[in-house]
Design a protein that fits this description.
Helix content is 49%, strand content 23%. The protein is α+β, with helices and mostly antiparallel strands and 370 residues long. It is rod-shaped.
Length: 370
């Protein structure tokens, strides 16, 4: 009987202790709601990158990586068949070479044409000088014949010479006058309507000017060919860029999670063919509005891994309103209303011993110290 009473009393004491301890814990803030406010946790997640061929497609000829393989930035992942692009590049290069030959031939022709025109101009100037001298000689002869004729007219008037001599002087004068007219016509032909200033090197002969104008116009043909060449060169660069895009390279360091296309398959442009796990990691925590207002994008946050309590330094990437399911439902517990939650994403570098999937905890001190 005493043993039963003693056991009953011990039970009453234990129940009383549990009850009093619960009350103390409740008012000290160690219930689930209070602990959720004091400490935040998130799952470390590695960013996944969908890798695709940029704007090109074709048959996959080389699958250079396998699942779970680690790759470095710039490593070759896959290669598409380049036969069609190679043929197009060869065709464009042949067209460019043909245009280069046309440009060189036309430039050579223009150069030779200018040289010939300069030679013709010099020859024309010398012919003009010679014709001018011939005209001056014919005019001098005419002046002499005119003096001789005038003397013989006077002599014939006094009967000092026979009439036949006067007739001969008249004939010689007419011949000299005809020679002057012929030489003037020849000089006018060489001048081609240009006013003779007496300085041959300053003359602008129409035929020479016309020849130079025609050669100048051929320069437009050269410019047209250059424009065609530039257009083809732009097409060539585009083809070379597309050929380079046929080789899919890793955009960053990471691990191959999944290969979505197999060798021999047709691959469409911009369709993911590889799923890559990057070295960039992040975790999300959810804060109340009173806590979130004390953080800003770019702030540094120190978290700890649950597994080994290792510090992880991270940077706040963004703070945004969280979905409704993340709100803290206080249910008027301890006189508090429900709290809206804010999603805080923290990016961190992956270090030794830190793996995606680990839980990272951030204490209240980290998001209230600012």
């Amino acid at each position: 009987m005493d043993l039963k009473k003693k056991s009953f009393r011990m039970g009453i004491v234990l129940l009383s202790l549990f009850f009093i301890g619960g009350i103390i814990l409740l008012y000290k803030g160690n219930d689930a709601i209070a602990l959720a406010v004091e400490k935040k946790a998130g799952i470390l997640t590695a960013e996944q990158v969908k890798v695709a061929f940029d704007s090109v497609g074709g048959r996959l000829t080389c699958e250079a990586v396998k699942e779970a393989q680690n790759v470095k930035k710039g490593d070759i992942l896959m290669v598409l068949d380049s036969t069609d692009i190679d043929l197009s590049i060869a065709k464009i290069k042949a067209q460019i070479a043909q245009i280069d030959a046309q440009i060189n031939a036309l430039n050579g022709s223009i150069k030779i044409g200018y040289a010939k025109t300069d030679t013709n101009e010099k020859q024309s100037f010398r012919q003009i000088d010679q014709q001018r001298e011939a005209l001056n000689s014919a005019r001098a002869t005419y002046e002499n014949k005119l003096l001789d004729y005038n003397r013989k007219v006077e002599l014939a008037s006094v009967g000092a010479i026979a009439q036949s001599e006067l007739d001969n002087a008249q004939m010689n004068l007419n011949v000299a006058q005809a020679n002057v007219a012929r030489e003037e016509q020849s000089l006018a032909t060489l001048l081609a309507g240009v006013n003779d200033t007496g300085n041959t090197d300053e003359l602008n002969l129409p035929l020479i000017t016309q020849a130079r104008s025609e050669l100048d116009n051929k320069q437009y043909d050269v410019q047209s060919l250059i424009g065609q060449k530039q257009f083809l060169e732009a097409e060539l660069r585009e083809l070379e860029v597309n050929k380079e895009r046929l080789i899919l390279r890793a955009s960053e360091d990471g691990k191959i999670l999944k290969v979505l296309a197999k060798e021999g398959e047709m691959v469409a442009a911009n369709v993911p063919v590889i799923l890559l796990e990057s070295k960039r990691c992040y975790y999300d925590i959810y804060l109340s509005e009173e806590q979130a207002v004390k953080l800003a994008e770019g702030d540094t946050v120190i978290g700890k891994t649950v597994a080994d309590k290792k510090d992880i330094e991270g940077t706040v990437r963004f703070i945004t309103a969280a979905p409704g399911f993340a709100d803290l439902k206080m249910t008027r517990e301890k006189g508090q209303s429900d709290l809206s939650a804010f999603q805080v994403r923290i990016y961190t570098e992956r270090e030794n011993g830190i793996l995606p999937g680990m839980t990272v905890e951030v204490t209240k001190d980290e998001f209230t110290k600012r």
